[in-house]
């Protein structure tokens, strides 16, 4: 519940920053190639995204048919990695369809297999939300004041130093 409240407050901020970045990128590109050139590039990337999504739809339908045929014959179907890869390609195609150069940049990045493999590795190791080496450890424990108490740590015993054995 706390996470959804924090996330819902960040969505409008993220959207505003994204629009600002898109406006700045469009202004920069239109300064380089002109307004008509920038509009043409937006149209071109949207058409490329539609073509990618159409190709993905056909290949996904073909993979689904193969997986169902394999499952009926007792073999294993499509793997989780293949499904995630297809979802990332689809998300990249949708980002290409959305007008704007920032979304096009991320859409083209998701079209690259090396970027998709990097994302899959991060998702499989659980490093997307936690620091390195802390797999499975919670990043935040939220307790009410009556749910915790402070306990003093026991002090380490003083180290005994060797005594001088002088003859007296």
UniProtKB/TrEMBL annotation:
Keyword line: Membrane, Transmembrane, Transmembrane helix
Ranges where the record places region Disordered: 123-168
Oxidoreductase recorded as keyword: no
Start-end of Basic and acidic residues biased regions: 147-168
Gene Ontology CC annotation, any one: membrane
Ranges annotated as spanning the membrane: 35-56, 88-112
The keyword Iron is assigned to this record: no
Protein name: FxsA cytoplasmic membrane protein
Lineage start: Bacteria, Pseudomonadati, Pseudomonadota, Alphaproteobacteria, Hyphomicrobiales
